[in-house]
Structure to design on (514 residues):
């Protein structure tokens, strides 16, 4: 275990994330408060302290100021990494008086990165970046008129990003700007509708989903509650333009055909689809897809669907609990094509247990035979709630690896099929410290995917476990979360609506002041 002792609470998360990226197999624990004298301690300890520039004496400084341009006193940041009573490495860096808090944070992370790089001999593909939206940096700088070359130099100098990841982020940012050029961010909005049921729960899953077998008799009651939220949001946002709709989960196609029809009909009746740019339904699990369900989607004018294999290796599917076959994936995809769906996405996960270069390449070859319009390559992120983490002792013998070579191979296969990267995001605890990348043919990009990642537009999210993101004019995002438990959602639907009422009231007031 690695223990981090830090006397600035507001930087604890950033330090923890960076240390965890260098030592993914270690438990990393943060202790906040005044730092002790250097000396013998537990097996591995990283002590980070802030020393005032004037007196060079350790003292606590205000640590909870917002990022923004808040200026802080000058200080020296010191870091010492020990193993027992042996000093492994140490370093310090000066921060000038008046430096913005965000720059203080960047200076701290650069110091730690240099120390940990020297100690481990490793380079991280994304350098010091530990957030989930790397493209927000080049997107912001492009909006300010920076050139691609200037942005690349800034990212390498500020965040130590590698050349390939820097180029990837900038190229995606440019493509996103082109795709979003006609979107009205202030007066428009997008809609997410969550269906929290799945045929079974995968071993790596931590989403808000439940086995349909446990809730089959409650699906209609869930839809009844959901429709109350639908009706409220439709009335409240009647003056705004709806740009995209995304029905996700869970697995929306666990609904029976008549339930799917009921849901889609209610959405059509409640919202104005006159300016709708995209309507996606995540069909997801091939074992939940039938011709009758796909016909319902087709009849309602759904423009984009996902058929998600995750892998085309049967042994892996069996282990992670997907409960469907590779053959069923192929059949579901071909069925959708035969019904006329011309914008089909397929999701993959890289880093699944026991899969290496050969297994992932096999998956890419199989997808090449099908010819999807877009492919999203996810690097496995084993979150705390997943059974794979809960039972990691039981599954210790299985490797969960990713590499630069594997990521480049998936990109190469996507390019061969005429697909190029259009959106990117990252998650904590991601295999290999890499990223999730969406590849799409021209005109087949998932617009909702870009909007949810770049946080430029309000996303109203309905259903159990759904998280609304309200985009305020001052570049502030406010989250409004629904309860995850299905029974709680049904019983407390009035409370879920009231949460949105309060948030939307604040959004209207902020818009009036802007």
């Amino acid at each position: 275990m690695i223990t981090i002792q830090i006397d600035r609470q507001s930087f604890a998360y950033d330090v923890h994330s960076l240390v965890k990226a260098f030592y993914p197999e270690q438990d990393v624990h943060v202790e906040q408060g005044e730092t002790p004298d250097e000396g013998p301690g537990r097996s591995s300890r990283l002590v980070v302290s802030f020393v005032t520039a004037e007196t060079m004496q350790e003292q606590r400084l205000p640590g909870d100021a917002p990022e923004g341009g808040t200026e802080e006193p000058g200080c020296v940041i010191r870091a010492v990494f020990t193993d027992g009573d042996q000093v492994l490495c140490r370093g310090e860096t000066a921060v000038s008086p008046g430096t913005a808090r965000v720059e203080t944070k960047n200076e701290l992370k650069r110091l730690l990165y240099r120390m940990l790089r020297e100690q481990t001999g490793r380079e991280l593909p994304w350098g010091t970046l530990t957030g989930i939206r790397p493209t927000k940096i080049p997107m912001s700088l492009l909006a300010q008129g920076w050139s691609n070359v200037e942005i690349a130099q800034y990212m390498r100098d500020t965040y130590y990003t590698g050349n390939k990841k820097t180029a990837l982020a900038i190229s995606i940012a440019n493509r996103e700007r082109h795709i979003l050029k006609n979107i009205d961010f202030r007066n428009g909005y997008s809609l997410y509708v969550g269906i929290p049921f799945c045929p079974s729960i995968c071993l790596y899953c931590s989403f808000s989903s439940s086995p349909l077998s446990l809730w089959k008799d409650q699906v209609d009651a869930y839809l009844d509650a959901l429709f109350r939220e639908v009706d409220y949001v439709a009335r409240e946002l009647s003056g705004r333009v709806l740009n995209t709709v995304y029905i996700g989960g869970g697995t929306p196609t666990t609904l029976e055909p008549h339930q799917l029809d009921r849901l889609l009909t209610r959405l059509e009746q409640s919202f104005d689809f006159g300016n709708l740019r995209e309507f996606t339904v995540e069909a997801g699990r091939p074992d939940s897809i039938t011709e009758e369900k796909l016909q319902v989607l087709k009849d309602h004018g759904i423009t984009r669907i996902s058929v998600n294999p995750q892998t085309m290796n049967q042994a892996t599917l069996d282990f992670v609990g997907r409960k469907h076959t590779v053959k069923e994936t192929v059949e579901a995809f071909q069925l959708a094509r035969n019904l006329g769906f011309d914008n089909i996405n397929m999701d993959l996960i890289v880093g699944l247990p026991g899969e290496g270069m050969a297994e992932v390449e096999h998956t890419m070859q199989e997808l090449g035979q099908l010819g999807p319009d877009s492919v999203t390559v996810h690097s496995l992120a084993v979150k705390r709630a997943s059974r794979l983490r809960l039972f990691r002792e039981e599954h210790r013998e299985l490797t969960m690896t990713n590499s630069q070579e594997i990521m480049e191979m998936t990109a190469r296969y996507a390019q061969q099929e005429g697909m190029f990267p259009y959106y990117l995001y990252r998650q904590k605890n991601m295999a290999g410290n890499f990223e999730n990348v969406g590849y799409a043919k021209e005109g087949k990009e998932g617009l909702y995917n870009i909007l949810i990642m770049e946080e430029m537009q309000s996303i109203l999210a309905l259903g159990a476990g759904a998280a609304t993101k309200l985009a305020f004019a001052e570049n502030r995002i406010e989250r409004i979360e629904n309860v995850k438990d299905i029974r709680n959602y049904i019983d407390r639907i009035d409370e879920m609506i009231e949460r949105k009422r309060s948030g939307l009231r604040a959004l209207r007031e902020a818009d009036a002041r802007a």
User: Anything to note?
Assistant: DSSP finds 17 helices and 20 strands in the chain.
